[in-house]
Amino acid sequence: MKPASFDYFRPSTVEEAFQVLSQSGDDGKLIAGGQSLIPIMNMRLSAPSCLIDINGLKELSYIRADDEWIRIGALTRQREVERSALIREKSPLLTEAVPFIGHMQTRNRGTVGGSVVHADPTAELPLSLLALNGRVVIASADEKREVELSDFFITYLTTDIMPHEMLTEVKIPVAAVPMGFSFQEYSRRHGDFALVAAACVIDTDLEGRISAARLVLGGVDAVPILAEEAMDALIGETLTESLLDKAGDLACMNVDPEGDLHATREYRRHLAGVFAKRAIMAAYEKATGKGG
């Protein structure tokens, strides 16, 4: 199938984009990479009357850091994140996670902002950015606001962003850059959507006790899930096999996946525990200097 007819606009400034957004109301859609929107339109699952091509807004494509934040512009291509020396140094979890996104051609076009706003619960960037305690900057013609990613994802493919607004930046606190990190994913083939994914960051003290941990699971609910009970069980402890089993059990007990033609509900829940444990172990080994 092909998409329904639509009007096409290509603003050259952010101000022009806001103007078109305001005029189009609920019928307008922003497009940059189009890796998710175009297939949905082709299947007539979405039929916007107006497409607003923001590829000309070059000021929204950047990766930079200051004393407090790692800042990634919404139009930054996923491949740029994958290859960035700054990201490799300051936020290596993203360097590990991004290669799981589709194929290189997908990452050449797909944008950071597009992935976060699309909010697929199995997508690699939302999981990783939530594990890093990130936040998003959302702007409109009248105001700018910041939202924690833990509050941004509402339900399946739905976020806290209004039709007249645009995500302009993703921010990662520099203080959240962990010593240990891991991204784990299971899919039928490389490049397919993940059945289940896990992102974990861990810090430890000199004795190997876990001082901070964040574990996020994808593919197990309508939004990426922060596994708080599993995290709480890890804090203040040295990782042992029994503690790892406990954290994995807590992680899979507190998810609510749906079954589909790719995997049953029970199988996704089982995978949640398995990949939570793998992510925790790999992150802990890096934090303690035992892993690569």
Kindly describe this structure:
- With 292 residues, the chain is of the alpha+beta class.
- The chain folds into 3 domains: 7-53, Uridine Diphospho-n-acetylenolpyruvylglucosamine Reductase, domain 2 (2-Layer Sandwich); 58-175, 2-Layer Sandwich (Uridine Diphospho-n-acetylenolpyruvylglucosamine Reductase, domain 3); 178-285, Enolase-like, domain 1 (2-Layer Sandwich), CATH 3.30.390.
- 35% of the residues lie in helices and 24% in strands.
- A 5-stranded antiparallel β-sheet has the order 4-5-10-6-7.
- The radius of gyration is 19 Å and the shape is globular.
- This is Molybdopterin dehydrogenase.
Distance between the termini: 47 Å
What is the correct CATH architecture of the largest domain? 2-Layer Sandwich
Class from secondary-structure proportions = alpha+beta
Count of β-strands: 14
Mean pLDDT: 93
Order of helices and strands: EHEHEEEHHHHHHEEHEEEEEEEHHH
Helical stretch tally: 12
* Poorly predicted ranges: none
Q: Could you estimate the helical fraction of the residues in percent?
A: 25-40%
Outline: globular
Instruction: Please give the oligomerization state of what you see.
Output: single chain
Sheet of most strands: 5 strands, antiparallel
Number of domains: 3
Spatial sequence of strands, sheet with the most strands = 4-5-10-6-7
- Under CATH at level 1, the class of the largest domain stands as Alpha Beta
What fold name goes in the CATH topology slot of the largest domain?
Uridine Diphospho-n-acetylenolpyruvylglucosamine Reductase, domain 3
Strand content: 15-25%
Keywords: FAD, Flavoprotein, Oxidoreductase
Domain FAD-binding PCMH-type: 1-177
Organism: Paenibacillus abyssi
Protein name: Molybdopterin dehydrogenase
